[in-house]
């Protein structure tokens, strides 16, 4: 499988390493707006994102390697590809239940665990060492940072960002586009467009509603 990666920052470096570790996967191009023209290094094309259509073919898939949830969604809407053109990238060291479901464009990083009947949306980041327990439901464009722990039956809605080493107890809902701070322990529901920190986590501010893209 030939893959085009959109974005070439730090998050993209990890995804490039992941793809390189997979058999029968090849990086065709890395596209980023920091490039003004097309060049080639070590067999990989580097060019602006506006060159995407030039390199797309029937056997080429795309992954968006941008850590910011909002920007990732903006790119999806801007380039307007069919859902099946996006590849799901799972590192070989990740443990993924056969009964789980993972959406197109999502990346599952080294040593992550996704347990029975968990559902992961599209264009999510399941970062290094994150644990998603049974029956979790993770919405599109979310980011679970390194070493987060989501216990059973947790609902994380679209665009939410769970900080590094945060823990969410069973049955909790984290609303759309909310942020849970690093190291927090979430024992109460978190409303949409909120920032919550601490142990136990408490809401410290509301997020600008403009983050949501219709």
Automatic annotation (TrEMBL):
<keyword id="KW-0808">Transferase</keyword>
<dbReference type="InterPro" id="IPR011004">
    <property type="entry name" value="Trimer_LpxA-like_sf"/>
</dbReference>
<protein>
    <submittedName>
        <fullName>Putative acetyltransferase EpsM</fullName>
    </submittedName>
</protein>
<dbReference type="GO" id="GO:0016740">
    <property type="term" value="F:transferase activity"/>
</dbReference>
<dbReference type="InterPro" id="IPR041561">
    <property type="entry name" value="PglD_N"/>
</dbReference>
<feature type="binding site">
    <location>
        <position position="67"/>
    </location>
    <ligand>
        <name>substrate</name>
    </ligand>
</feature>
<feature type="site" description="Increases basicity of active site His">
    <location>
        <position position="135"/>
    </location>
</feature>
<dbReference type="InterPro" id="IPR001451">
    <property type="entry name" value="Hexapep"/>
</dbReference>
<keyword id="KW-0677">Repeat</keyword>
<dbReference type="InterPro" id="IPR050179">
    <property type="entry name" value="Trans_hexapeptide_repeat"/>
</dbReference>
<feature type="active site" description="Proton acceptor">
    <location>
        <position position="134"/>
    </location>
</feature>
<dbReference type="InterPro" id="IPR020019">
    <property type="entry name" value="AcTrfase_PglD-like"/>
</dbReference>
<dbReference type="InterPro" id="IPR018357">
    <property type="entry name" value="Hexapep_transf_CS"/>
</dbReference>
<dbReference type="Pfam" id="PF17836">
    <property type="entry name" value="PglD_N"/>
</dbReference>
<feature type="domain" description="PglD N-terminal">
    <location>
        <begin position="2"/>
        <end position="76"/>
    </location>
</feature>
<dbReference type="Pfam" id="PF00132">
    <property type="entry name" value="Hexapep"/>
</dbReference>
<feature type="binding site">
    <location>
        <position position="143"/>
    </location>
    <ligand>
        <name>acetyl-CoA</name>
    </ligand>
</feature>
